[in-house]
Amino acid sequence: MSANGQNRHARTARLARKLAVAGTGAAVLALPLIGATSASAATPAATTAATTYPDNLDGWIRESLDIMAQQGIPGSYEGIHRNIMRESSGNPLAINNWDINAINGTPSKGLLQVIDPTFQAYHVPGTSWDPYDPVANITAACNYAADRYGSMDNVFGAY
Questions:
Q1: 112, 137 in Cβ contact below 8 A?
Q2: Which residue ranges in the chain fall short of pLDDT 50?
Q3: Across-strand partners of 114?
Q4: How far apart are CA 26 and CA 123, in angstroms?
Q5: The whole model's pTM is what?
Q6: Which of 39, 57, 147, 149 has the fewest Cβ atoms within 10 Å of its own Cβ atom?
Q7: Are the beta carbons of 111 and 138 closer than 8 angstroms?
Q8: Are 84 and 138 a contacting pair, CB within 8 Å?
Q9: Alpha carbon distances (Å) from 29 to 1, 16, 23, 33, 135
Q10: Do the beta carbons of residue 65 and residue 81 sit within 8 Å?
Q11: Rounded to an integer, what distance in angstroms lies between the CA atom of residue 86 and that of residue 112?
Q12: What's the rounded Cα separation, in Å, for the pair 112 and 61?
């Protein structure tokens, strides 16, 4: 490396250290200014691992909330949990074979007891088309509730 290159490297390193003292955000913003040579150096978040969720009610609700946030669908953990406990007691395979929907041939299914036409109309891209899939069921039901009631948080009875 030439002497000129070594001086530039020393000045760049010194600048980076000063910016790091000022705050990590400033140092990250300064990377393109001080000669970052690869896109990955300027975008460290791109290398983070995908979120994993437990295969239980808590995990299903949390995964649904993340999908809902990406899609702009309102709702809270508490509102979803409250409605799930009322509708299915947390059983993703629950089916209602006795109400008017069942008598008419379209029983409500899953955690939030959604009938097939409603599930299909309010299905959220990126989720399963299976109405018994917990995440797909929660997300479609919350999408429906948002359209009809403003949010699942506003639902306090059968919907």
A1: yes
A2: 1-44
A3: 109
A4: 42
A5: 0.70
A6: 39
A7: yes
A8: yes
A9: 27, 10, 10, 8, 37
A10: no
A11: 9
A12: 11
In whole angstroms, give the CA distance from residue 112 to residue 11.
61
Angle formed by the axes of helices 134-149 and 77-88, nearest 10°: 110
Question: 109 phi and psi, to 5 degrees?
Answer: -135, 155
DSSP 131: T
Q: Sign of the C-alpha dihedral, residues 87, 88, 92, 96?
A: negative
Token pair recorded at residue 123 = 């299905």
Alpha-carbon distance 134 to 92, whole Å?
Answer: 6
Longest dimension (CA), the chain: 86
In the three-class reduction of DSSP (H, G, I as helix; E, B as strand; rest coil), residue 39 is classed as helix
- The phi and psi torsions of 103 (rounded to 5 degrees) equal -60, -35
Question: CA 19, CA 5: separation in Å to the nearest integer?
Answer: 21
- What type of residue sits at position 49? A
- In single-letter form, the type of residue at position 93 comes to L
CA–CA separation, 75 and 141 (whole Å)? 11
Residues whose CB is less than 8 angstroms from the CB of residue 111 and which lie 6 or more positions away in sequence, other chains included: 57, 60, 84, 87, 88, 90, 91, 92, 94, 134, 137, 138, 141
Over the stretch 106-134, which tens digit does the pLDDT of each residue have? 999 999 999 999 999 999 999 999 999 99
